[in-house]
């Protein structure tokens, strides 16, 4: 038998309101997509109109989770159109490389201010860029190297390219410009006698391409 106090307590028990949530309905590149262009936009479609919030979108290498681009929500790379979030890359990605994307849960909100629920960690968002198929070649020699190596970029009618050398932890160690030696070739000697033995990542960047090679110091 219910007493008057029991019935009153049941009637007065507070009911927690259901907090609206913001969900992704589609994404580009699609999860596990391959042959993605290295200049591709990042596009997310949500189930309702959105506004920008706070935080970063981080593009990182899938293999070691090393971040390659950190795009702030208030940067010129980011824009919204109704239910759609569009993010432009800061620089092109590397060819034949698997990437994953992390998005802060407050990066976007609905128009009432409710935050995005976040990307499901059980279903990570990753994709692989297309192979480098054009007749352009990055050469590194000698490799393995002892005190220096040469970087040669051929088949591009450009006047400048930037070379960066990273350790396995993603720290930038050296940066130089490649010098033109022919109408379509760039070259530079890189001294590494001040570096310990090990494996390094060489990245060469132009206005349209990013190419990477491993360099071994003996």
**Shape annotation:** elongated
Number of helices: 1
What does the largest sheet look like?
Answer: 7 strands, antiparallel
Specify the structural class: mainly beta
Biggest sheet: strand arrangement: 12-13-16-15-14-17-18
Can you give the mean pLDDT?
A: 84
CATH architecture annotation of the largest domain: Sandwich
Helical coverage, percent range: under 10%
- β-strand amount: over 45%
CATH class of the largest domain: Mainly Beta
Straight-line N-to-C gap: 85 Å
Question: Which stretches of 5+ consecutive residues score pLDDT under 50?
Answer: none
Secondary-structure element order, N to C: HEEEEEEEEEEEEEEEEEE
Mind telling me the C-alpha Rg? 25 Å
Q: Give the strand tally.
A: 18
Mind explaining what this structure looks like?
The protein is mainly beta and 218 residues long. The protein folds into two domains: 24-129, Sandwich (Immunoglobulin-like); 137-217, Immunoglobulin-like. The chain is built from one helix and 18 strands. Strands 12-13-16-15-14-17-18 form a seven-stranded antiparallel beta sheet, with no helix packed on it. Strand 7 (78-81) and strand 8 (84-87) form a beta hairpin. The protein is elongated and about 60 Å long.
């Amino acid at each position: 038998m219910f007493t008057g106090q029991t019935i009153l307590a049941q009637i007065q028990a507070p009911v927690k309101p259901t907090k609206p949530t913001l969900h992704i309905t589609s994404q580009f590149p699609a999860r596990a997509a391959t042959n993605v262009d290295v200049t591709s936009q990042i596009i997310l479609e949500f189930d309702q109109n959105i506004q920008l919030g706070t935080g970063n979108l981080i593009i990182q290498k899938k293999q070691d989770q090393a971040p390659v681009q950190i795009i702030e929500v208030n940067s010129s790379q980011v824009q919204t159109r109704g239910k759609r979030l569009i993010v432009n890359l800061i620089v092109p990605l590397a060819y034949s490389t698997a990437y994953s994307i992390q998005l802060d849960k407050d990066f976007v909100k609905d128009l009432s201010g409710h935050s995005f629920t976040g990307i499901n960690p059980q279903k990570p968002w990753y994709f692989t860029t297309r192979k480098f198929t054009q007749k352009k070649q990055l050469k590194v020699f000698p490799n393995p190297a002892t005190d220096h190596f040469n970087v040669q970029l051929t088949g591009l009618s450009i006047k400048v390219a930037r070379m960066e050398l990273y350790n396995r932890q993603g720290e930038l160690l050296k940066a130089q410009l490649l010098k033109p030696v022919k109408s379509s070739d760039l070259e530079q000697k890189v001294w590494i006698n001040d570096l310990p033995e090990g494996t390094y990542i060489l990245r060469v960047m132009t206005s349209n391409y990013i190419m990477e090679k491993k360099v071994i110091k003996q």
